Amino acid sequence: MAQSWDAAQYARQGRFVADMAGGVFDLLAAQAGETILDLGCGDGALTAKIAATGARVVGVDSSASMVEAARGLGLEAHLLPGDELTFDGEFDAVFSNAALHWMHNQDAVLAGVKRALKPGGRFVAEMGGHGNIASIRVALAAVFADWGLDAYGMDNNFFPTATDYRARLEAAGFSVETIALIPRPTPLPETGMRGWLETFRRGLLDRLPEQHREAAIEKTVALLKPVLHSPEEGWVADYVRLRFAAWVLVASP
């Protein structure tokens, strides 16, 4: 599933992603004068918040629409996939929020992050973790089966356990300070589950003939309403986040 992004749509229907990133932002603890790489910077909402601390921030993202939006905020942002980082020893920290689970080659991502950091630099990130959007994925699988399609097989998200990702980080040369799965039920904007699907599952929906996409959305929403919607709270997505802080191991002299 090749996911495509529209920065204007994301600003309307996905702003909660940055708004709910306080925990990982605090874990970064950016300091004035530091150089920080925002990996998967999106439209720059969090990049700008980091820059406001006095740090110099460089953003990278694989979406041209998102990079253009970030540049519109006056930020330095580059069109660059996360598994093709070209930096070498330039940053005190690499930060990432809600982006790593979209990146295909995790070994290349981690190798690029390590290479981008100065000796002793830190990697602080939050991503979708094991069990993330489980109900949504099950509903989509049921709906897409009506058209003979395997939604699980076309879903390119990577939602690891803490044990799995700790091992990946350590194998890449990081010392893991903290890593944990954090259940985080996430209230959705007024557009609800329909808006979420149209924003975060565009790539999957695009696999259907255009005349069937509306029916697929309606069926998915109907399946999920008894599980993720209530009159009191509206739509609440079943998010689980994996948050971690890791440091580049420094070789002994």
UniProtKB/TrEMBL annotation:
Keywords: Methyltransferase, Transferase. CDD domains: AdoMet_MTases (cd02440). Residues 37-124 form the Methyltransferase type domain. It comes from the Bacteria. GO terms for molecular function: S-adenosylmethionine-dependent methyltransferase activity. Gene3D superfamilies: Vaccinia Virus protein VP39. GO terms for biological process: methylation. PANTHER family: TRANS-ACONITATE 2-METHYLTRANSFERASE (PTHR43861:SF1), TRANS-ACONITATE 2-METHYLTRANSFERASE-RELATED (PTHR43861). This is Methyltransferase type 11. The lineage of its organism: Bacteria, Pseudomonadati, Acidobacteriota, Terriglobia, Terriglobales.
